[in-house]
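Retro notes, item 3 of 5
We never archived the inputs for the flavin-adenine dinucleotide complex last cycle. Fixing that now. Sequence and ligand:
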Amino acid sequence: MSNVLVVTEGRDGTLRGVTNELLTAARGVASELGGEVDALTIGGAMPEGADGLGGWGAARVRVLADEAFAAYSGERWAAAVAEVVREGGYAVVLFGATSEGRDLAPRVAALLDVPLAGDVTGITVEEGTPLFTRPVYSGKAIATVRPTASPALATLRPNAFQASESEAAGTVETLSVTPSDAPTATLREFKAAAGDLDVAEASIVVSGGRGMKDPEAWSVLESLRDAIGSDLAALGASRAVVDAGWRPHGEQVGQTGKTVAPRLYFAIGISGAVQHLAGMRSAGTIVAINKDPDAPIFQVADYGIVGDLFEVVPRLTEEIRALRADS
Amino acid sequence: METPLNIIVCIKRTPDTETRIRIAEGDAEIDPAGVKFIVSPYDEFAVENALRAKEAAGEGTVRVLTLGDASSKETLRAALAMGADAGTLLEGRVSQDGLATAKALAAEVEGDDAELVLLGVKAADDDQQQVGPMLATLLGRPCVTAVSSFTVENGVAVCQREVEGGTEVVEVPLPAVLTITKGPFDPRYASLKGIMAAKKKPIEEKPAVDLEHRLEVVRLSPPPERPEGRIVGEGADAAPELARLLREEARVL
Ligand SMILES: Cc1cc2nc3c(=O)[nH]c(=O)nc-3n(C[C@H](O)[C@H](O)[C@H](O)COP(=O)(O)OP(=O)(O)OC[C@H]3O[C@@H](n4cnc5c(N)ncnc54)[C@H](O)[C@@H]3O)c2cc1C
Ligand SMILES: Nc1ncnc2c1ncn2[C@@H]1O[C@H](COP(=O)(O)O)[C@@H](O)[C@H]1O
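Structure as it came back at the time:
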């Protein structure tokens, strides 16, 4: 078989943007292999919009809806996905490199006894087998790896693949899998972070560092984010300000924080230490605003402004607000 | 407070994140010459969390386990100096195939009665983000990933998890496998006394089980060069031009 399975990602009953990126990447691989793309949804019910995944290239949308899968359980979900993969005889299985995908995919790989390429940013097909490219050594090198067992499994870094629409039949079919009763973790509590969009998922990231001077000053960055649109942009932070307790852990970008690949990244009052670069160097466009012209962040920035962020950012916010009002 | 808590922490020797990386001839490996090696940063967080859990339990052991070559003994010593009680070196090849690593670790952990196995959420070199949940699956134990801190009560670990959109509190029955991410506790520095004591702590060395590596590195290349950036200007007056460039040239706004 030469079909590709995409394990979709939903939250609160709706699909996440990474799903469309996965389907777009899967389409490229499937057309090289001469196969088709299937999308798998798992949960208590079919997520909203799943029947429209044909519009992103899914030939079949396979829906696993069962009360037993309503809450995420790595153990239970992995057993179900592994069964679907075994029965479907897929050549390639793709997951998002999100909290959920990174939790799920390695378990599926272990159950199927095949290797997994993690946090992949590019895929090519050579002689009928996929080659995955993935940043290693905190982005200081890129490895191209070839799995020598089938199916080939990979998690794809959010925002690394540009989603594009396509047409396919997109038939919907329901599956049923007996849930495993292996011991598993139980969710006791969920505390939603402020803002709807996570820094790892946002297509634009506005990050602040120690140059912000004071946690109160974040209103400056919030205004910039809101001018861009809080449906597109999320706030990020350097470790220095997370360690200082100014910002939550969930916003930290870098080696010991999140890895992000937005199309636009603002580094504001951030010096650009290697550990910070590790988390954002694969962003599409990088903007640095820093009063020190020798700050290392300017070496990776596409555009820089040397100056006091408290003067530059409010002005930039006004300009962007005006631009967006025009369009 | 009364029941002893035994913990195994899997740690990996990786290049210091500050180190410059040079690709060795053959384009498949890095050139180790001049590279400073450390305990992978998340694994240090894992050791710190293990020591705290043991201290909270009042009794127990923390054993550090690594797959690598003889140079990884240094990595084990660093964790022993932080306060771990014993170390085990499984001698074998390390590759990007995390499942091979997980199998080697599983063979060693299998017969151990440790209530908890801790790993880093990802290794600083190959960044595969997979060995922990793979190990748990091979062992048939439940696993919680991306744990920033946890407590152990009555045979259950209560874990704080960082996920997109918020933080979770999850409970998992022991024995369990946790992968650790950065949290409220910074890794402790080894004291001089700790370093001296580490020299007397036991390190067991044994060959790893036979490993099949099925994720071949076809090539290692430098990251794509970013196009030369430019300074748009100085101060607030440069802001309108930056906004224009972002919209018209980079087309990202
Ligand atoms: C193992 C390890 C892991 C790490 N992981 C991470 C990680 O995940 N993420 C991370 O970010 N760091 C990480 N670090 C820390 C990293 O080395 C740096 O210390 C940190 O990134 C610095 O944060 P910063 O840029 O906000 O602060 P600083 O380095 O202090 O930089 C502040 C910048 O603000 C500028 N500035 C000051 N005032 C103004 C003003 N008014 N207007 C404009 N600019 C101004 C200054 O010129 C300076 O460049 C890690 C370190 C280690 C050792
Ligand atoms: N060779 C190894 N020896 C011991 N533990 C390892 C090894 N490789 C990876 N690990 C553990 O698995 C975690 C995740 O690694 P990875 O999946 O490679 O990103 C690391 O943080 C370590 O805790």
